[in-house]
């Protein structure tokens, strides 16, 4: 982080605390699973209903170019908690990296790590050391016990990537969340538990990580809400009534949290962040106009909704188009809460406090990056055998470059003119392509990012040709 920006950001946080006379701000980070960029009202959906998420954007700032650190769950969460790009911690994907049929994989992907190692100081550990009461509620997906990594309270979090047992409907059994009676909806319960935590800690600074399993598969919702959306006429490609009902329940839980903050008169001194871990599931929702979906480095897989409300600091009804990414939240929240960076900890992100005070501000960093040296099998006909093969990407300003490691293929897009990534401009912009590729390779060297190159002995060219219908 540049020295001047660090000084400015710390001064802003100090000015806020002194001028208002309030204690350290509380932090509520609401993290939604598999939630597409356009699945929320403040980014344009006309079918799904999200009045409470929209309220956060209306009373705060909508980050229109917000990104997850990966196209699927676990690596995004590992980056969020550690403040580091994936090559630093080795969590690249969910489960194994050699997904799909072996005969169709040209190269051997990088071996994946599924647990965030204890050596990494998490955001929760840093805030806890700074005097915060910390709680995680919902999906953890980085090991079997988040209380070993900075959380005082864990409700329903284990290594699971999706709801266990009966899914979203009780009976279920999670850590500190047991209901053997039939009928309770998990998303509702997590919202209520979040409200209880806020109530219990209203006299001290707290960090609440409300990390919903929703809207991850299985697509299960409350029957009365499903019926509501079955009667609603879609206006575009978003048509899934069950998914819409899941979203409404998720948004109701957001409302529960916001109402609790209001009732306890904590809203003015609480930073509320609404964010998602990756793009929407392509078999469930439409990410249009974005290309691709969960599991891909196209915009549909990594551009996500994000809104931040912090009264008195973030001006209401504002919008930022500056590209931001998950690793930015760690340094942002440390500076916003005037919490010291833990010893020997280095972060890859950049504080967003300059943007909080000026929606038109730039972070003045050269680029943001993705590294995904893994295979993910397809789940719709349009995907084919794979959603993605091992790949990496870089965004610089309005430009985005994707590299596929199997054959070195490059794709360059101008997102200002082509948000749908329809026009590959590598030939027209050969110099820019070479420059961005060089910068991306330099970043990989700096982070020791592994690029798989070893040929897969099980690869079958004939099977590959048949699967991809290539001549």
How are the SSEs placed, and which strands pair?
Elements: H1 3-20, E1 26-32, H2 51-58, E2 61-63, E3 66-67, H3 73-82, H4 86-89, H5 123-129, E4 133-138, E5 153-155, E6 172-174, E7 177-179, H6 186-200, E8 206-211, H7 223-230, H8 241-263, E9 270-276, H9 299-302, E10 307-309, E11 318-320, E12 324-325, H10 329-336, H11 353-357, E13 368-372, E14 376-377, E15 386-388, E16 391-396, E17 399-404, E18 409-414, H12 430-447, H13 461-468
Parallel strand pairs: 1-8, 1-9, 2-11, 3-12, 4-5, 4-8
Antiparallel strand pairs: 2-10, 6-7, 9-10, 13-16, 14-15, 16-17, 17-18
Helix pairs in contact: 6-8, 7-8
Your description of this structure?
It is a single chain. This protein has 471 residues and is α/β, with parallel strands linked by helices. It has two domains: 3-357, 3-Layer(aba) Sandwich (Alkaline Phosphatase, subunit A); 368-468, 2-Layer Sandwich (Arylsulfatase, C-terminal domain). The protein is built from 13 helices and 18 strands. The chain has helices at 3-20, 51-58, 73-82, 86-89, 123-129, 186-200, 223-230, 241-263, 299-302, 329-336, 353-357, 430-447, 461-468; strands spanning 26-32, 61-63, 66-67, 133-138, 153-155, 172-174, 177-179, 206-211, 270-276, 307-309, 318-320, 324-325, 368-372, 376-377, 386-388, 391-396, 399-404, 409-414. The strands form five sheets. Strands 5-4-8-1-9-10-2-11 form an eight-stranded mixed beta sheet, sandwiched between helices. Helix 6 (186-200) packs parallel to helix 8 and helix 7 crosses helix 8. The chain starts with a helix and ends with a helix. The relative contact order is 0.19. Mean pLDDT is 94; it is low at 1-11 and 15-20.
């Amino acid at each position: 982080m540049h020295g001047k920006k660090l000084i400015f950001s710390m001064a802003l946080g100090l000015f806020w605390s002194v001028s208002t006379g309030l204690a350290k701000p509380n932090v509520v980070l609401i993290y939604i699973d598999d939630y597409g960029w356009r699945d929320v009202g403040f980014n344009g959906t006309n079918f799904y209903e999200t009045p409470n998420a929209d309220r956060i954007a209306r009373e705060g700032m909508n980050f229109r170019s917000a990104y997850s650190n990966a196209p699927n769950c676990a690596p995004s969460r590992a980056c969020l908690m550690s403040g580091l790009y994936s090559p630093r911690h080795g969590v690249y994907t969910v489960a194994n990296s050699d997904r799909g049929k072996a005969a169709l994989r040209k190269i051997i992907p990088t071996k994946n790590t599924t647990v965030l190692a204890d050596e990494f100081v998490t955001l929760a550990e840093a805030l806890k050391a700074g005097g915060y009461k910390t709680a995680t509620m919902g999906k953890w997906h980085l090991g079997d016990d988040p209380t070993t990594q900075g959380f005082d309270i864990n409700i329903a979090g284990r290594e699971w990537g999706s709801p266990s047992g009966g899914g979203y409907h009780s009976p279920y059994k999670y850590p500190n969340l047991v209901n053997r009676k039939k009928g309770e909806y998990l998303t509702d319960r997590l919202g209520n538990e979040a409200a209880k935590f806020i109530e219990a800690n209203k006299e001290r600074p707290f960090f609440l990580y409300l990390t919903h399993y929703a809207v991850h598969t299985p697509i299960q919702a409350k029957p009365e809400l499903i019926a509501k959306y079955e009667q609603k006429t879609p206006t575009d490609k978003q048509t899934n009534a069950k998914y819409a009902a899941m979203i409404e329940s998720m948004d109701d839980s957001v409302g529960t949290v916001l109402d609790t903050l209001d009732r306890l008169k904590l809203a003015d001194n609480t930073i509320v962040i609404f964010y998602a871990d990756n793009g929407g599931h392509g078999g469930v929702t439409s990410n249009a106009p974005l290309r691709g979906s969960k599991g891909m480095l196209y915009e549909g897989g990594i551009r996500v909704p994000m809104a931040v409300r912090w009264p008195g600091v973030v001006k209401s009804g504002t919008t930022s188009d500056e590209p931001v990414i998950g690793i930015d939240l760690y340094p942002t929240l440390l500076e916003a809460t005037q919490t010291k960076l833990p010893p020997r900890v280095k972060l890859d992100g950049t504080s967003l406090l300059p943007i909080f005070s000026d929606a038109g501000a730039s972070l003045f960093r050269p680029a943001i990056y993705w590294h995904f040296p893994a295979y993910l099998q397809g789940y719709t006909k349009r995907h084919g055998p794979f959603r993605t093969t091992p790949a990496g990407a870089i965004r610089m300003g309005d430009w985005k470059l994707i590299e596929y490691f199997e054959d070195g293929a490059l794709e360059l897009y101008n997102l200002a003119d082509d948000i749908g990534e329809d026009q590959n401009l590598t030939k027209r912009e050969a110099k820019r392509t070479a420059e961005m590729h060089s910068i991306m390779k330099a970043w990989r060297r700096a982070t020791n990012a592994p690029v798989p190159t070893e040929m897969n002995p099980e690869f079958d060219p004939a099977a590959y040709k048949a699967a991809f219908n290539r001549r």
